[in-house]
Amino acid sequence: MTRSLDQVVTAAAAELMAATATNVIASCTRVLADVVDHLGVDFSFLRHNDHVIKATKLVAEWPIRDYIPDPDPIGVIYFSEADPIFRQAEYLKKPLIVRPEPDNDDYQRRIEEGRGVPSVSMACVPLLSGEITSGILGFIKIGDREWTTEEQNALQTIATLFAQLQARIAAEEQLQYLAEHDDLSGLLNRRALMAHLDDRLSDGRPGPVSVLFLDLDRLKTVNDYLGHNAGDQFIKMFAERLRAGTERPAVIARVGGDEFVVVPDGPMDVATAESFARRLQTWLQRRVVIDGEMLARTVSIGVAVGAPGHDTTSDLLRRADQAALSAKSTGGSKTAVFTTEMASQHAIRNDIELHLEGVIDEASSALVLHYLPEVDMRTGKVLGTEALVRWRHPTRGLLLPESFIGVAESINLAGKLGRLVMRSACADFARWRSRGTATDAILRVNVSPVQLVSDGFAATVDGTLAEFGLDGSAVCLEITESVVVQDIEATRHTLAALKEVGVRIAIDDFGTGYSVLTHLKSLPVDTVKIDRGFVRDLGANAGDLAIVRAILALADAFGLEVVAEGVETVAAAKTLLELGCPRAQGFMLSRPVDGAAMEALFRQGHIAVDALRDTSATPGRG
Predict the structure, then answer these.
(1) Residue 476 in contact with residue 506, Cβ under 8 Å?
(2) What is the pLDDT of residue 210?
(3) Average pLDDT in the 568-572 region?
(4) Whole-angstrom distance, CA of residue 499 vs CA of residue 504
(5) From CA 150, how far away is CA 502, in angstroms rounded?
(6) Which positions fall inside the GGDEF domain (predicted)?
(7) pLDDT > 70? residue 314
(8) Model-wide pTM > 0.85
(9) How far apart are CA 207 and CA 311, in angstroms?
(10) What's the CATH architecture for 5-180?
């Protein structure tokens, strides 16, 4: 039974609506074959226009040629080199009918020379996406043929279906690309990396599978002092350099703001992977030019190797991440291979997580406060102190905050721990003052991110001050720079409420890479504390010197007090004094001491700073 044109169009619609990115060519070919058969023509083609390279690309044809050369001479035809008919396909907006007539003798002659047929009749219908001609659908009959209005209308409908399919597949491919790629660097994202590693680590696949986990050292400093555009440009250039420096085929992914993963194709043992990582590290640390500035960031690389059928993706990535953290913790710009010792450190974390909540809930004496004095390096006067929590672990000895604060935050105990530290510090400070010491000093207490966004935090602080009879101006709450920008509106609201209570506010670890600069003017901040990473090598590192100068200039512009953290050398201390920054903390001045020793220091009033007497310090902020 002969089908009508409407039935052919309906069948085409059903076929193309069911097409996917994986079977689109086959579906298009079937539709072309069906239409060719119904119209009784000899050839058909579907082509898509690439307006970027100004060319038309063959997508499907019927009948399929017995032999398709490589390269295919009709696979990609540039409009500038095309015959007059094909050249019209670039901007064609309505059906084009070509029949053996004098007006197109040149085209007919080309056909005869190329295909050996004396003349053809052709109907070309554009694929339109809005005002854009996205392709062309063509049907050819050897010899002459009349194309009825009904046929032309049907072909236009089918062309519309092809255009819709083209747009849908392009959208699906774009969504798939976005789902698997990082939009800034163009590298694969974590999701795609996980899928790749799941496949590589499946039972029966060749191994070992090596993973390189790259963590850029202090990248966010670029964002803070050159702006986010510069930081984004650096990430893009780093990604390009990473591709160029990966000498063997590999999957490369960006899994965080400054974290990348490289998975070499094919089996690779740990020694080869470590050697590869060291070569890559050297390559990546070369300087690049961003907005006229020469920039170089070091990178810490962790290496781990897994066995297919034995190790999981999450295990392998965790090991590589732990190795990178180990490399970073030793100062960065290192390569580290995962070891069982790192696994032991992970076990320690699990132990801490298991017992920490009980210690906090019971306000156990196992949690003690030590205090880090704040000193005027010009005179040695003790200006204040920062409360630091310690944990006397029953089996692991005295644990410093970095051993358990991160765990507390990860299991939602940071708020409880913060309240306990604040009450204990205020109790000690009030007791010292009642005995006539620390009367003009300031107590600094660190605030966790959880506390800062908790409802009623300001009221809790107010109640604690009232409980111990302390004036708010004697207490300074310290928040890290990263916390400020996590939720700027909530931060602004909480800080405003704290200022009503009367306490002072300091931004801790200032300069470590989070963009607080745009908000600094609008936040009720009194003090910035220069991160120890910029102070430790001050006097020997020109880059750190430039950053510290910039921080001091910024603080001066906003009328902020500055405290330098991590003063460990005479050179750093003298440089700070020369820059006009006398307030400081650090092991050169005093290590953290227990409550009794801190009270004694307040009573004494001064710490010896004889080593700094020969400097000609510029008067600084008091």
Answers:
(1) yes
(2) 96
(3) 92
(4) 7
(5) 84
(6) 207-340
(7) yes
(8) no
(9) 11
(10) 2-Layer Sandwich (3.30)
Radius of gyration in angstroms for the set of CA atoms belonging to the chain, rounded to a whole number? 35
Question: pLDDT tens-digit profile of 170-183?
Answer: 888 888 888 888 88
3-state helix/strand/coil string of 303-359: EEEECCCCCCHHHHHHHHHHHHHHHHHCCCCCEEECCHHHHHHHHHHHHHHHHHHHH
Closest CA to 394 of 353, 350, 352, 431: 352
Q: How many residues does the chain have?
A: 622
The amino acid at residue 383 is L
**CA-based end-to-end distance of the chain:** 99
Map tokens 């107010």 to a residue.
462
Query: Matching CATH topology for 5-180 and 190-338?
Result: no
- Give the C-alpha distances (Å, rounded to integers) separating 617 from 63, 560, 563, 575, 614: 88, 20, 16, 9, 9
At a CB cut-off of 8 Å and minimum separation 6, what does 492 contact? 519, 522, 523
Residue 278: C-alpha distances to residues 72, 244, 267, 320, 333 (Å): 44, 15, 18, 15, 10
Q: What letter represents residue 456's amino acid? A: G
Q: In this model, does residue 618 exceed pLDDT 70?
A: no
pLDDT range class, residue 483, cuts 50, 70, 90 = low
Q: Which range has highest mean pLDDT (24-38, 352-366, 508-522)?
A: 24-38
Listed by start position, the domains of the chain span 5-180, 190-338, 366-390+410-612
Classify the C-alpha dihedral 221-224-226-229 as positive or negative. Answer: positive
Bridge partners for 529 per DSSP: 563
Q: How confident is the model over 192-205, as a mean pLDDT? A: 94
User: Among 216, 504, 409, which Cα is nearest to 401's?
Assistant: 409
What is the reported pLDDT for 508? 85
* Cα–Cα distance, 168 to 330 (Å, whole number): 51
Query: Tell me, what's the pLDDT at 492?
Result: 82
**What's at 512, amino acid-wise?**
T
Report which listed range, 327-336, 492-501, 591-600, is most confident.
591-600
Taking alpha carbons only, the member of 370, 446, 460, 444 closest to residue 408 is: 446
3-state secondary structure of 543: helix
Question: Which whole number is the average pLDDT over 309-318?
Answer: 93
Half-sphere exposure of 412 (CA within 13 A, CB side): 1
The whole-angstrom separation of Cα 622 and Cα 472 is 19
Question: What is 366-390+410-612's CATH superfamily?
Answer: EAL domain (3.20.20.450)
Report which DSSP code applies to 145.
-
| Class level of CATH domain 190-338 | alpha beta
406-421 average pLDDT score: 78
User: What DSSP state is assigned to residue 208?
Assistant: P
